[in-house]
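Researcher: Predict the fold of EamA family transporter.
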Amino acid sequence: MNTSSNKPKLILALGLVYVLWGSTYLGVKIVTEVLPPFFLSVVRFIFAGSIMLAIGFAVEKENPTRKQWKNAGLIGILLIGMGNSSVALSLAHMPSGLVALFIAALPAWFIGLDWLFFSKERPKALTLWGLVLGFVGLFFIFDPFYIIHPYNAARTYPLWPILVLTAGSIAWAFGSLLSPRLDTPKQLTSSGIQMLSGVICSIILSACLESNQWEALNAMTTRTWLAVGYLVIFGSLVGYTAFSWLVNNAPTQVSATYAYVNPVVALILGWIFLGETLSTHAFIGSVIVIAGVVLMTLKKK
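Model: Structure tokens for EamA family transporter follow.
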């Protein structure tokens, strides 16, 4: 992949993913105050996917083969149906900044899965130290066994969403690594198919695990609809397209760097609009996590 010839596109795509995806944590948090998280994914991506697919057909004028439909659908299930839905579910139960910080460890899954299933390239020592540092920081933040702060009763959120986030992160990383290795349609058409495939997965999860979805839809306010509109336009149509371009045109470590910028944006917005704050030990842990992610990605220019 020749990133030098695509440098302006690379910078633009990274900037969009850095800022827009960091702000989507706030948007999802606002909407899940009213809508169940899996049903939110249905609403969000049925709009975004339909618009994206229509634009793709109009602009790219491609008639995908059955194999291309199948491949793009698989990527959509991994990224949208599993990865994105796990974030929405976690945001319904945890502060947005902490969810974003957990997602900051995503490069660890990229590196590990790439080593095991794709490149077979063993991570360098610096990368391994970054992995260790990242997970130490996460343990410091969440302190599941109250080892660091044995008398800390300030945690007001459950820890089970961490397991959901872990599964979703693995699905997201695997789908991102798989995407450039499969025969898929052109960029916009493929993104539309992926989103709509994720909708099918989210519909099944919502039908099995949630209730009163339509009653919740009737309870949406102007604030909620504005947040949905932001997620559709900026989080999905613009942000997801930029990320899809990155995973197909940039080295893995480069495309994964958004993971240590998004938490900063999410933390600032959560503090401004939702009144979320970080405890001292969580702040220290977040610095450790981001330092670890930086180490993981240092070997790439």
